[in-house]
Amino acid sequence: MSPTLRLAISLALLPTAALASGAPSPELQRLDSVNVFGTAEDTQKAAGSAHYVDQETLERFNYRDINRVLRQVPGVYLVEEEGYGLRPNIGIRGSGTDRNSRITVMEDGVLIAPAPYAAPAAYYFPTMARIDAVEIRKGSSAIQAGPRTTGGAINLISTPIPGEPGGELDLSYGSDATVLAHGWAGGMGERFGGMVEAVRQSTNGFKQIDGGGDAGYELNDVVAKLRWVSAPDAGVYQQLDLKFGHNTQDSHETYLGLADADFRTDPNRRYAGSRLDNIQTEQNLLELRHLIELGENTTLNTVAYRTEFSRNWYKLNDVLNPLTGSYVGIGTILADPTTWSDQYAWLTGEDSPADALRLRNNNRNYYAQGLQTVLGTTFATGAASHELEVGLRVHRDQEDRYQDDDRYRLQGGQFVLTRDGAPGTQDNRVGDAEALSLFVHDTISFGKWILTPGVRYERIDLASTRYSTATGRRDVVLSKVETEVDEVIPGFGATYLLNDSLTLFGSVHRGFNPPGPASGALSEKSVNGEFGLRWNEGAMGVELVGFVNDYSNLVGTCTASSGGNCNLGDQFDGGEARVSGLEASLGYDFNEGGAVSVPFSLAYTYTKAEFRNAFVSSFEEWGTVAVGDQLPYLPEHLVHAELGLAGERWRLGVAANYLDDMRTEAGTGPGERTDSAVVWDLTGGFQLNDRVELYARVENLSDETYVVARRPAGARPGQPRSAFVGMRIGF
């Protein structure tokens, strides 16, 4: 089986808590030995489902959307939002898909959410253009990454420092005046090295605002890395890495979707009421890593990190009901535009009374900082060999909300400010989290058996401090709620190497999601199991996995992105639920070793997700729940298929994704849903010489029109057909 196919299918990923850059060149194997989950060669050892999307696979379609990348992986669920993957909603094995708040997301092994404990649903995701590889691990492996162990973990590996001086420039242009530019340059000397990398993206957007307006975005991302290594003759090898990052985004995006009738007429329409909607973000990152080899079989990897993130999403929040003086949520209006005919008319641009449209300065600031270290050693006890890891993370993060509302009227299609809210008069609070995490994990190999026992401990101190919204000042504390969480999270996996081709594996572990500050909810807990097999023979590789996540207490969280009419940050106990399913992946090269390779891959996911108790909840996506009701935003079937042709200097590829429809609220039988769809992508490339490649791709080739979500408010479309041409230059 070809190395490319082995990487494109599922790979075993041995866990280490501290990671650095991605797949290194041979001369840098030791320099970059701190990858989190492991390498392709470990496929047969993994005690759970694991996948690695390598650089070659990413470059095949040159996707800049994490949604399209992850559709290649079974067991991963995605809910699109704006069509570009800027604010993805990712879940694993039914964990939930509101932002990425129910899984562990890392960049180079460091938690990357702006406040991963206090506010994991915040709006930041690494820029895919500068990601070299993506690791996805499900099951008990999440114990090493933590703190959220229910579904799994995703690690995005940034571009590594090359072993020799070099670089790359990738430029493309496409539909809606979309510019995608990415470049990096760097290298490694005998003891010092580094690189600098930059991304620029901009587009006019594919939606059209009534009366005109900007519906696109601009993104800038810069990363710099420096490295020092000890002298070749040093008695103890050491490595020191420094990483800086700066990311800004200016996106004219909205929470306002469409009423169903308007979606059927023109899915890419945007109402006039969203014309002022805009989110601006800024993220700064600093990491200092240290690797030391304490002995022939022992290493210590340590990273200190700090991220700072600020954002202000100025967007339409709700619309005035003059009869009561209260405001009606935009989701409520679009669900029933007949009842709310006046409010709907104002959304679509008709003249309104004063204060009719309320826009929110959704201003928030975050930071996260910490120190994490992992000690790894190998040793033998009799006939058994051990790969033991002991990890520690000390972490602190914060979310600071300081928000206000402005009110407008529409007159002649123009927004007229009628009331300017004072800062801090809508929301004025701070959420803090401090965490101490420990884990111990051992990989025990003897004969044909590999056993992987592990345990994680999380001690989390949460606090929510509220200040006056009447004055907007912070001189008086109105309330302070503190919560302590102590949790022991065990896990165990076993792998049996039946022969050189066939491997059986299984694992069981405790799923855990901590509560938010002052949420009033219990921690989310479950018992999760999986059992599967891998078969690799010649040009074919197959993985088949059955899984079940049995929740003793499912937790729902009110966020602005979930579209609920509730207090943001509130959490709701959903009691018992069960998510079970089947994951299958296959890879085969029809002409391995021939002049033209014909690689084929297939990924399929079947999911059954239902509540196991009855209750009534004020969480809008649940409502009145009966035993057996389906969980919202979880599709029953997902399929990804890909076929390629590749010669010495050229390549062609076609990918198809079947996206099943999903319920948007708990229930059975008929109900509000997204649309099912088959989305085709086409790509091709031609290598002019050793350094220059020309390429093109078309996304959504058949121009499929479908509802991808009904949250935060109203029906939202998938990206229409979009074409791009580009050039990749290496030097």
TrEMBL record:
Pfam families: Plug, TonB_dep_Rec_b-barrel. It is found in: Cell outer membrane. Residues 253-701 form the TonB-dependent receptor-like beta-barrel domain. One of its GO terms (biological process) is siderophore-iron import into cell. Keywords: Cell outer membrane, Membrane, Signal, TonB box, Transmembrane, Transmembrane beta strand, Transport. A motif (TonB C-terminal box) lies at residues 714-731. InterPro entries: Beta-barrel_TonB (IPR000531), Beta-barrel_TonB_sf (IPR036942), Plug_dom (IPR012910), Plug_dom_sf (IPR037066), TonB-dep_rcpt-like (IPR039426), TonB_rcpt_CS (IPR010917). Residues 1-20 form the signal peptide. PANTHER family: FE(3+) DICITRATE TRANSPORT PROTEIN FECA, IRON III DICITRATE TRANSPORT PROTEIN FECA. This is TonB-dependent receptor. The lineage of its organism: Bacteria, Pseudomonadati, Pseudomonadota, Gammaproteobacteria, Lysobacterales.
